[in-house]
Amino acid sequence: MNSIEIPPGIKDIFHELGRGHRQFISDNGDEEERKRYDRIQRHLDDYNQYLAPIGFKINEGDGFYYLTGSEDNASQNAKLDRQLNWILTLGLLTEALDSFEDGQSFRAADIEAQCGQNADLADRLRKYSQCSANSPLSDQTDSILRSFERVGFILRRSTHDRSYTVLSSINYLRDIIVSLNIQE
């Protein structure tokens, strides 16, 4: 009887990527995330060989990893909706901060200041946040930043001054945008 050797750390990696805790593991995250990134880098082939029979694969991007699996049409549609929301939020953050690049640091107050001066940005923030229309600007900003943090696009550096760093996984969205071929 053949037994499959369980690759080191696969349970932790699958739990993190496959259970919805984070959708990306980046090379410039916190210390724990960097350890996971290094572990995947060392064992990627073993992980994928182990995961293949159950329909999963760890994919490598530019400074990040993410998990994919077979999906039905409903799951694919939900995934496309999430990606569209991420792209719209990326556009908002890029405009509010003049850029939103891998490794960039920013504060939530910077976004709020721009939204205070630009009604279009403020309307888009209100629309994309999970808050009611009457919620304070800081709650709306925190809502979209929590969403991006939960997915793994940004890392909170300080709760005191609400500062963040953009992670390498943002390149996933950039790759999607580049691959879109919109015909007029």
Q: Shape from CA axes?
A: globular
Report the average pLDDT across residues: 90
Helix run count = 7
Please state the oligomeric state of the protein chains shown: single chain
Low-pLDDT parts are none
Please summarize the sheet with the most strands: 3 strands, antiparallel
Could you name the CATH topology of the largest domain?
Answer: Arc Repressor Mutant, subunit A
Query: Which structural class do you get from the secondary structure elements?
Result: alpha+beta
Number of strands: 6
**Beginning-to-end CA distance, first to last residue:** 58 Å
* Number of spatially distinct domains: 2
Q: List the secondary-structure elements in sequence, H or E.
A: HEHEEHEHHHEEH
Give helix % range: 40-55%
Q: Give, in spatial order, the strands making up the sheet with the most strands.
A: 1-3-2
Tell me the CATH architecture of the largest domain: Orthogonal Bundle
* The level-1 CATH class of the largest domain: Mainly Alpha
| Strand content bin | 5-15%
Radius of gyration from the alpha-carbon trace, in angstroms = 18 Å
Protein model, in words:
The protein has 184 residues and is α+β, with helices and mostly antiparallel strands. The chain has two domains: 10-69; 74-179, Arc Repressor Mutant, subunit A. It contains seven helices and six strands; from the N terminus they run αβαββαβαααββα. It has helices at residues 10-18, 31-51, 73-97, 108-117, 119-128, 137-151, 170-179, and strands at residues 25-26, 56-60, 64-69, 105-107, 154-158, 163-166. The longest helix is centred in the middle third of the chain and has 25 residues, at 73-97. The radius of gyration is 18 Å and the shape is globular.
